[in-house]
Amino acid sequence: MNIAVRRLGPGFVLTATLIAGGCSSLPGRSGSGSGDSTVGSGQAVLSPVQAQNLTDGQSALADGEYDSALALFRDVLAENPTVTAAYVGIGDVHMAREEFEKAEPAYRRAARLEPRNFVAQYGHGLSLQMLERFVESIRAYLRALEIDPQSGETNLNIATCYLQIEQPTNAKQYAERAVALEPDNGAARVNLGAVYEQTGENSRAIDEYVTALELLDNTPPVMINLINVLAREKRYQEAVNTALTLIRIEPSANAYERLGWAYFRLNRYDKSIEAYRNATDMDPNHWPSYNGIGVNALNTYLLSNKKDLTAKDEAGRAFRKSLQLNNDQDRV
Length: 332
Prior knowledge:
The protein is mostly helical and 332 residues long.
């Protein structure tokens, strides 16, 4: 997973969380003066050398020269341990390196030095989220939201955290607010779709996923979500069409398995078993698709008035293979 530390512009979307929603990286920030939404120096008065080191450190960070940036920020703190921006800079370096356990205390110190600093509070929330300390992360994001209620990325990440602790009802207001603030943010649309899906508002989930796909250029994990919710609404032909599009974009065992499932719901059994077989050809360990083959073969056996023994044998082999791959599964 890549963390992008953005100095300007909207937050970067962590694509690893797209299936359940977005997670935005550090927001844009400008300058080094104190203020609610910028990286400030707190109450510290900087010497010319400290100010230059801070500027050079931020430039090195932006250029990906992380060791140099870290050394410069530490030089500032060695002379003046109350410079908020230096702690934030250290946190940014560790986030860029995906060293979340090191980023968190740096942001925490910055937020304590300057509680009204949005970037410090947001960075603390993001580092906690990446450490999967979701309840603490929500608290930090809420502090950031008090400073900047119009932050779409903060609303998005709060909603994502609530989804990650399986509280979609609590996530809903923040997910809706994120979309209201940034209607063209594809990750926010995915997030809201996931919230609606988990609260049983399937039609609204479909609308959000469709909009997200227009914004994100047919992202495969989102297409899987859309297929599932279309089938839940018994819109099986649309689910098939979406699965076929997904296979053209990015063939996978999961995509073929979803196609087989949707075809089965349309009583197109030949197409269904073909899709499941394609899935196991792509991934011989894809146990759900062996279940699909087994169900289709068993269905063929039953429709033949139990005369098609070849289908019966195929069903038995498929179910046994599935259980060999995963013996801890629900009854089919």
